[in-house]
Backbone:
């Protein structure tokens, strides 16, 4: 039995697989992999891979594994990365604008904030952050960077706070949506996601399940649409007596509505409030 999943998640999974299978832990972040190795040091059935889950087919091919029993994708930034303030993911404190999940890549949040033109910045903040004040934020970023490079999280937060009316700063931290948008752009989290879901399903054994945890509506919408398409959504006109579109069904959607955290978990772990779990089973 093989299970493919994020490297930061997996102590209980490793225990269950310790006698008869292996766990393949994938993470872009070298430091997150090191933390996972320490956390799972008692287990000998874990393979650690520094890579992107978007490359699942190549990863398994390199390991000479045709398919796996299950896949868990925990999308977005991890608690480990958020807690490491110097990584620049958090809008709390004053740290270098970085936000790279993989530190070997060249483009950072500072590059995007200081080099993208105003229109492109506004579009990213609106599309990936669903921020209503994206135009104002982008405009003020461009004004500020003419005087001085924006190099810290604190500088960016101050610009965002000035761009959003106080009366509208009630739904969480005012910088939350913009930081999310810039992080997504830095790490190219959205563009490959639909194909990654399809590739993951194709890498499952019959009866294997793909479990995906999302943390914002953009991810969740893409996962939901990919699941629907992989379940074999017919696109033929309703008046045709039989299907001619040829859409193949790869399996079944286990839960039509996403599974969310219970109230006690939300109290214990506030970051679970936005988490949604969707499950797909391959035929």
Residues:
């Amino acid at each position: 039995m093989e299970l493919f999943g994020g490297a930061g998640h997996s102590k209980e999974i490793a225990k269950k697989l310790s006698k008869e299978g292996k766990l393949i832990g994938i993470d872009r972040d070298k430091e997150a992999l090191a933390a996972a190795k320490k956390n799972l040091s008692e287990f000998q059935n874990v393979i650690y891979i520094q890579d992107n889950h978007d490359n699942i087919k190549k990863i398994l091919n390199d390991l000479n594994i045709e398919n796996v029993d299950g896949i868990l994708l925990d999308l977005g930034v991890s608690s480990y990365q958020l807690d490491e303030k110097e990584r620049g993911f958090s809008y709390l404190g004053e740290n270098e604008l970085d936000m790279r999940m993989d530190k070997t890549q060249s483009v950072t949040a500072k590059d995007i904030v200081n080099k993208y033109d105003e229109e492109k910045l506004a579009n990213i903040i609106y599309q990936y952050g669903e921020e209503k004040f994206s135009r104002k934020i982008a405009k003020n970023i461009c004004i500020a960077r003419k005087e001085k490079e924006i190099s810290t999280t604190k500088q960016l937060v101050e610009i965002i706070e000035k761009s959003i009316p106080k009366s509208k700063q009630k739904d969480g931290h005012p910088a939350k949506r913009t930081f999310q948008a810039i992080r997504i752009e830095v790490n190219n989290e959205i563009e490959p996601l639909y194909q990654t879901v399809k590739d993951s399903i194709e890498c499952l054994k019959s009866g294997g399940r793909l479990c995906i945890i999302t943390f914002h509506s953009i991810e969740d919408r893409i996962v939901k649409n990919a699941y629907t398409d992989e379940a074999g959504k017919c696109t033929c006109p309703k008046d045709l007596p039989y299907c001619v579109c040829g859409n193949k069904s790869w399996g079944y959607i286990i839960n039509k509505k996403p599974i969310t955290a219970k109230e006690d978990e939300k109290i214990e772990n506030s970051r679970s409030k936005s988490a949604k779990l969707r499950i797909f089973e391959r035929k």
Q: What stands out?
A: Residues 83-187 form a domain with the DNA polymerase; domain 1 fold (CATH 1.10.150.170). The chain has two domains: 2-79+190-282, 83-187. The chain has a mean pLDDT of 90. The radius of gyration is 21 Å.
